[in-house]
């Protein structure tokens, strides 16, 4: 079979590269993405490898680029991304790149340091401007006033009176009165007060005021005023709200204490002259300096912006170049040096069909490096299990991801992905069948497919969106198949389409139909034309309130069993392809044949009974082939397994549906029972006989050395290709494993068949939820009349649409998706799929760049 149905054939090759040409050759292989290198130095520390210095240089360049990227994003500058991938630079170009990045980083750091210093100076001048402006109000007050502090301590315990005269007068005095006020309020006692002014963060102000009160025992006087506009922190650029304060005190001791408290609360103190003329002169000087600083800051920011804009044009390409260089040297660290130190030796897994393509890439690399010694690619013989490589495109990639999530296929094992492309959306649609909901899903998938180039270019970290976009083709197919099953069910938003006209004719009047909940139509009367609806269900079932669910239950339950049994039989047939490809004759005879017989004689016979019943019994037939004499298939199957005689469903009705049914059922059950010991003991007994025969052939050999006997044993064990090897296992383990697999298959055949009833259950649940939303939400708006009814209908329709998309499409769709996934992983793939392989992970620049340059160590 082609690689679509099995993984690619892989070859282990040995590669010899001249040291001068190794870089260019590995670069070409990285662009190709078809070679997986093995680590030939697993015991060598990562810091002791040959090209560790080059990898460190690349790490340093990446650090500088990340710093530039952070600064560019901080300024909101768009980075040019052409979508093109430049070639990996030559080793000599690393020096130029390092010099360019070093220059940009130093220039940007210098600009940032200067800008930070200017902003810090600007902040200090701004705070000083607010201090001079706010404190002027305090000093201009010349009448006695009562100051009530914002602190709860000062407002509850004391009142202060401060009277200040003109500060130009040499005899200016201020009186600070405490709560006791006895000694301080003595007549004629004038006190000379000192003060400090500063700025503090607004959230620290209450604690700052309490600390002043406690540490100075109430002998200081604090005035504060808020700065309305926030100030920018020069360190991190945050906006900070601050307040201006001025503290009056007496004596050097209090002055020292006040300054220590200000230092502890990180308050900034500024000099504030006592004379009004000095304050005005200082304020004018501050305003002049602020204007000059604004000019310098603007020029600094313009220069910084120009540097970042120039870097943003090339940043993406620089990242790609550096990551490619780093990936190349990381890969070269996996190679071995020969004795002469002039040749690098590598071992790699390559797809067999691509060996010529790889050799051409190696020649291009050699020519580009100017080397005269061609590279040598030798195919090696090995008994190791090769990696599994399934070629995919944008359409099959998502389906292959569903399979690989269960387990990577063993080498050359049958790949379920091509069949899953059809079976997965179909089984989903059986549960999700609705023409309207399927159309919404299909349109969403089609929109992502049509816009995939633009959406793929908009790289995002939103994991949910990436999952939806990655599965756009699955979503589209699930929507299309759901539209098909919706037409089969004749269901669109819980209503039916009358395309071809109903094949039933009502003989009752309208009031009887709408009011009689127990009204039923008989196909034996003239109400039925005798021919079925051309496509899907007849729309008459939409108004059959009493037996609509009964009819749909019987229909959907039976098709669930039919699809389930056919799906499982197909899985068992897939195991035949594995056994024949690997030439595993024992598994073919003692596993595949009894498994298929067991499934066919029991469960496929159950499916045949359904078709026989549908074909032989009808309401229009003559007795005893009427619907009243149709036997229950479930009871018939149970009686068959228990070897019981079935009972007639009615008086004078036939017990069996066809002649010889009892005999055939007995034979079928006996065949199924006979298959169990064959599955349980056939393969282990044959393995035991083969080992015994091999021992008898080896024992008569006399005079043979241990090495010769060992060589014969190894040679005999190497046959069988990719088949199963049991030479290393104990016989007891083989019997145990076979017993587990047999019990799992026999019991699983019953449970897996019942598991497919989830198709019926979820389909009914989906239809009932849609009907509930229609009858309890949208019908309320449709029953209203007039212009108010139109407004009400608009609101109700919007609510109904949100619930439909959110619950029926998203939540029910996710539920049906998970159930479909389980049916494929457990019920289908367990019949043939081992999933014990490991994925082929080639050295590919596209993968490395897509993953953000995270080069993983090869284990």
TrEMBL record:
Parts of the chain that traverse the membrane: 421-449, 469-489, 559-577, 592-612, 663-682, 759-781, 787-811
The source's domain of life comes to: Eukaryota
- Which regions are flagged for Gly residues bias? 712-721
- Keywords, comma-separated and alphabetical: Coiled coil, Hydrogen ion transport, Ion transport, Membrane, Transmembrane, Transmembrane helix, Transport
* Coiled-coil boundaries: 51-128
Disordered: annotated segments: 705-726
Return the PANTHER family for the record. V-TYPE PROTON ATPASE SUBUNIT A, VACUOLAR PROTON ATPASES
Function, in words? Essential component of the vacuolar proton pump (V-ATPase), a multimeric enzyme that catalyzes the translocation of protons across the membranes. Required for assembly and activity of the V-ATPase.
Write the protein's name. V-type proton ATPase subunit a
Organism of derivation: Drosophila arizonae (Fruit fly)
Q: Name the gene.
A: LOC108621304
């Amino acid at each position: 079979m082609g690689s679509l149905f099995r993984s690619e054939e892989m070859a282990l090759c040995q590669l010899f590269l001249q040291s001068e040409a190794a870089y260019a050759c590995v670069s070409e292989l990285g662009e190709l993405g078809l070679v997986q290198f093995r680590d030939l130095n697993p015991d060598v520390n990562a810091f002791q490898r040959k090209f560790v210095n080059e990898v460190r240089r690349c790490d340093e360049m990446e650090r500088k680029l990340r710093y530039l990227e952070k600064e560019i994003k901080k300024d909101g500058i768009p980075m040019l991304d052409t979508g093109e991938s430049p070639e990996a630079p030559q080793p000599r170009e690393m020096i130029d790149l390092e010099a360019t990045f070093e220059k940009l980083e130093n220039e940007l750091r210098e600009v940032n340091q200067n800008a930070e210093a200017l902003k810090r100076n600007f902040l200090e001048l701004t705070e000083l401007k607010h201090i001079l402006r706010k404190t002027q109000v305090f000093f201009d007050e010349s009448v006695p006033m009562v100051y009530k502090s914002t602190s709860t301590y000062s407002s509850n315990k004391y009142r202060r009176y401060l009277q200040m005269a003109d500060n130009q007068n040499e005899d200016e005095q201020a009186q600070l009165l405490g709560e006791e006020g006895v000694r301080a309020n003595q007549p004629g006692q004038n006190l000379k007060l000192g003060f400090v002014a500063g700025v503090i963060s607004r959230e620290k102000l209450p604690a700052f005021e309490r600390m002043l009160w406690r540490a100075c025992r109430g002998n200081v006087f604090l005035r504060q005023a808020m700065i309305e506009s926030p100030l920018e922190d020069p360190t991190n650029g945050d906006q900070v709200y601050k307040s201006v304060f001025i503290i009056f005190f007496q004596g050097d001791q209090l002055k020292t204490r006040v300054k220590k408290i200000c230092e502890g609360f990180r308050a900034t103190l500024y000099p504030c002259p006592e004379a009004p003329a000095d304050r005005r002169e200082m304020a004018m000087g501050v305003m002049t300096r602020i204007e000059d600083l604004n000019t310098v800051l603007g020029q600094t920011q313009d220069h910084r912006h120009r540097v970042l804009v120039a870097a943003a044009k090339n940043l993406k390409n620089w990242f790609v170049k550096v990551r490619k260089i780093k990936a190349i040297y990381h890969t070269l660290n996996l190679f071995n040096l020969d004795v002469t130190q002039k040749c690098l030796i590598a071992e790699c897994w390559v797809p067999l069909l691509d060996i010529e393509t790889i050799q051409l890439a190696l020649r291009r690399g050699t020519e580009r490096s100017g080397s005269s010694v061609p590279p040598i690619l030798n195919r090696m013989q090995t008994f190791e299990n090769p990696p599994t490589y399934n070629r995919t495109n944008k359409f099959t990639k998502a389906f292959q991801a569903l399979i690989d999530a269960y387990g990577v296929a063993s080498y050359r094992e049958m790949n379920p992905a091509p069949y899953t492309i059809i079976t997965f959306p179909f089984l989903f649609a059986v549960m999700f069948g609705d023409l309207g909901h399927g159309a919404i899903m299909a349109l969403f998938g089609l929109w992502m497919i049509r816009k995939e180039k633009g959406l793929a270019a908009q790289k995002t970290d939103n994991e949910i969106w990436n999952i939806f976009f990655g599965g756009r083709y699955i979503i589209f197919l699930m929507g299309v198949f759901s539209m098909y099953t919706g037409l089969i069910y004749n269901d669109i938003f819980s209503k039916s389409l009358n395309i071809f006209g109903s094949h039933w004719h009502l003989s009752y009047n309208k009031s009887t139909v709408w009011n009689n909940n127990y009204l039923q139509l008989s196909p034996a009367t003239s109400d039925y034309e005798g021919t079925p609806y051309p496509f899907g269900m007849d729309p008459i079932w939409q108004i059959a309130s009493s037996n609509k669910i009964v009819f749909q239950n019987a229909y959907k339950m039976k098709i669930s069993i039919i699809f389930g049994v056919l799906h499982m039989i197909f899985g068992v047939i897939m195991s035949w392809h594995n056994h024949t490809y690997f030439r595993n004759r024992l598994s073919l005879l003692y596993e595949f044949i009894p498994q298929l017989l067991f499934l066919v004689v029991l469960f496929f016979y159950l499916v045949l009974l359904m078709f026989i019943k549908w074909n032989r019994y009808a309401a229009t037939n003559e007795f005893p082939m009427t619907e009243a004499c149709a036997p229950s298939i479930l009871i018939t199957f149970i009686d068959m397994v228990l070897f019981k005689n079935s009972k007639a469903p009615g008086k004078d009705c036939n017990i069996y549906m066809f002649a010889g049914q009892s005999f055939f059922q007995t034979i079928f059950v006996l065949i199924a029972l006979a298959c169990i010991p064959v599955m349980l003991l056939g393969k282990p007994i044959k393995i035991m006989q083969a080992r015994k025969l091999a021992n008898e052939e080896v024992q008569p050999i006399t005079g043979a050395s241990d090495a010769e006997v060992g060589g014969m044993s190894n040679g005999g064990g190497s046959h069988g290709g990719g088949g199963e090897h049991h030479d290393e296992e104990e016989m007891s383990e083989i019997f145990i494993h076979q017993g587990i697999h047999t019990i799992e298959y026999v019991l699983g055949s019953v449970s897996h068949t019942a598991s497919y009833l989830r198709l019926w259950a979820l389909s009914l649940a989906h239809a009932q939820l849609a009907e509930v939303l229609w009858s309890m939400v949208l019908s309320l708006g449709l029953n209203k009349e007039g212009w108010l009814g139109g407004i009400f209908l608009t609101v109700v329709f919007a609510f109904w649409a949100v619930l439909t998309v959110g619950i029926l499409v998203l939540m029910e769709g996710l539920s049906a998706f998970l159930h479909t996934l389980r049916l494929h992983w457990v019920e289908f793939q367990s019949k043939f799929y081992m999933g014990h392989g490991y994925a082929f992970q080639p050295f590919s620049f596209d993968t490395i760049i897509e993953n953000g340059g995270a080069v993983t160590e090869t284990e």
